[in-house]
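If you are new to this repository, start here. Below is one unmodified record pulled from the training split, so you can see the exact layout before writing a loader.
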Amino acid sequence: MQLYFKVDNEMLTDYIRYLFPTDRSTPLKVSSASEFGELLIAHARISERPVPKPEGDHVIELELPQNDATQSLANHFLYYTKGDMRRLNMGLRAIFDIDFRTYYLKGLDLEWPKKDIVTAFITSRKLFSTDTYDSLHKRAYRREVAKQNKLTQKLLRKVYYIHESIDSSGLTNNQQND
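And here is the target side for that same chain:
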């Protein structure tokens, strides 16, 4: 039971290979033991005719497991629609983001330098595409900046509230009359 899946970018292609390890010459053996494996199985569609392989970069061949969930898919041609692939890529990005964020926060709790955390994540997940380090480092940096901006906005709202609560106009009028 094989079908093709077009991944959005090279880093996510490396990540899906981490989720379902195999050598690059054979299809990825999807496991229903992982959340993303369950999503891949759930979105598979049946066709009575052969379905052409999606065009473009980062197209990977998947092999679904033979179990109760896939029993009805046997002896059919399988495929994903373009909409299915968009939704699956969204799910893959979400799983990747959760994995990276969890790994990053655990590293910060252990007081490891940010550079070492990102490098360790890349190595442990076998993300060897060309721009992985920069994109992950920027992602962590953007989260830090967003966190600081939220804190700044919260403090500014507090200052504004306090400033509006204090009747400073009475003080300036009394000082001018003296």
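Two things worth knowing about this chain: The beta strands are 2-6, 28-29, 45-47, 59-63, 77-79. The longest helix spans residues 132-165.
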